[in-house]
Design goal:
Elements: H1 2-11, H2 25-31, E1 37-41, H3 48-58, E2 64-69, H4 74-83, E3 87-90, H5 95-106, E4 111-112
Parallel strand pairs: 1-2, 2-3, 3-4
Length: 115
């Protein structure tokens, strides 16, 4: 699955620690307290990505959210940013772009894929 590939990629980075992965909103909710940055897929069922971002923001968690998605639609991307995500990375962006986005989020910078 995609999350195994991403986890393996990120595990090679000395300054990034993967603390888990989730396939639904409930599992993701249990990981919030262990994270500084969450990669959230737009593929979470039942609009789970938006619901998770809103939960993090509403409950004032210090977690930064990067959305990982397929769309290049500006309107769809903006909905995640307006909900509180700090960036949006296209799933077909390079591994380097993903790592760069994670590091930027850690430094309070927002990055959205140029495409």
């Amino acid at each position: 699955m995609v999350f195994n590939l991403i986890s393996s990629l990120l595990a090679e980075e000395k300054d990034i620690e993967v603390v888990g992965h989730a396939t639904d909103l409930d599992q993701a909710t249990h990981l919030i307290s262990r994270c500084n940055i969450m990669l959230v897929s737009t593929q979470l069922p039942e609009r789970g990505a938006l619901r998770l971002i809103r939960k993090i923001v509403f409950e004032h968690h210090p977690v930064k959210v990067l959305v990982l998605g397929l769309t290049e639609s500006r309107a769809q991307i903006i909905q995640y940013i307006e909900a509180g995500a700090v960036g949006y990375v296209l799933k077909d962006d390079s591994a380097d772009a993903l790592v760069q986005s994670i590091r930027a989020a850690a430094e309070d910078q927002a990055i959205v894929s140029p495409r």
